[in-house]
Amino acid sequence: MARLRRIVLPGELHVVVHRGHNGQPVFIDEHDRDAYLASVREAGREAGVAIHAYGLLTREVRLLVTPRDAEGLGRMMQSVGRRYVRQFNQRHARSGTPWEGRFRSAVIEAASQLPAAMYFVEALAEPGADDVRSSAGHHLTGQADALVVAHPSFWALGNTPFEREAAYRRYAAEGPPERQLAAILHAAAHGWAVGSDGFLATAAQQAQRRPRPASPGRPRAAQR
Q1: What's the CA gap between 91 and 74, in Å, rounded?
Q2: Looking at the 3D structure of the chain, how many domains does it have?
Q3: Range of 141's domain?
Q4: Backbone phi, then psi, for 132, in 5-degree steps?
Q5: Per residue in 126-143, pLDDT tens?
Q6: pLDDT at 104
Q7: Most buried one in 146, 149, 152, 221, CB count within 10 A?
Q8: What is the C-alpha separation between 145 and 162, in angstroms, rounded?
Q9: What is the pLDDT of residues 40-55, one digit of tens each?
């Protein structure tokens, strides 16, 4: 079966997941994480992609971004790959890419999904994962992170930074429903969109492809 074209919608929220090849580590130490974030900062600026949240796990990266145009996300990830892989291989005396093939992504409806998408990307559902470095501190405790650009829907959580941080802390303490996190992960893994029926209809029209899996089973024959 032919692979569906990636859905990238200008001005919309996207979750990105990029994993290590065969589950191998993509970060060995903090120097690697610093180098990756520096690559994201430069590549995002050049490609016109805003970074709203990130999570660097030992074996994968999660990003929450908004591209300015349909090509921006691909340009950014290609640039990050070139910059980071070169440094990673030089430091650790290796060759080849540490990443699996293509990065995975999903289009997310910000109005209904932003807090859940942030929670997923920042790996807040990974208790005891000491090797996670994320933007959670920026959103939960006000530890300023120059890489992070607030999404307009995050501003809607409160009138002041303190109110927004408090609202997100309350949300993170309870956590989104497991099915919502599972839907975001599944959509990112398979290139779907997540949101209301109206959002999905708009995504389908703009992307010129279906935004979610086809319903199982064969269509019913029309009754005569």
Answers
A1: 26
A2: 1
A3: 13-204
A4: -85, 130
A5: 765 557 899 999 999 989
A6: 95
A7: 149
A8: 16
A9: 999 999 999 999 999 9
Q: Which of 218, 52, 48 is nearest to 135 (CA)?
A: 52
User: Three-state SS for 43?
Assistant: helix
Helix boundaries (H) for 66-196: 72-92, 110-121, 136-140, 152-155, 161-174, 178-190
Contact of 56 with 64, CB cutoff 8 Å: no
8 A C-beta contact, residue 79 and residue 39 = yes
Does residue 221 form part of some domain? no
Residue 215 lies in a domain: no
Contact 64, 53 (CB under 8 A): yes
Burial of 218 (C-beta count, 10 Å sphere; 0-12/13-18/19+)? exposed
Residues 6+ apart with CB under 8 A from 55: 61, 62, 63, 121, 122, 123, 132, 133, 134, 135, 136
| Residue positions counted in the chain | 224
Closest CA to 132 of 38, 62, 48, 210: 62
**Beta-sheet pairing, 60-67 with 193-194:** unpaired
CATH code, domain with 57: 3.30.70.1290
| C-alpha radius of gyration, the chain, whole number | 18
Residue ranges in the chain whose pLDDT is less than 70: 1-4, 127-130, 215-224
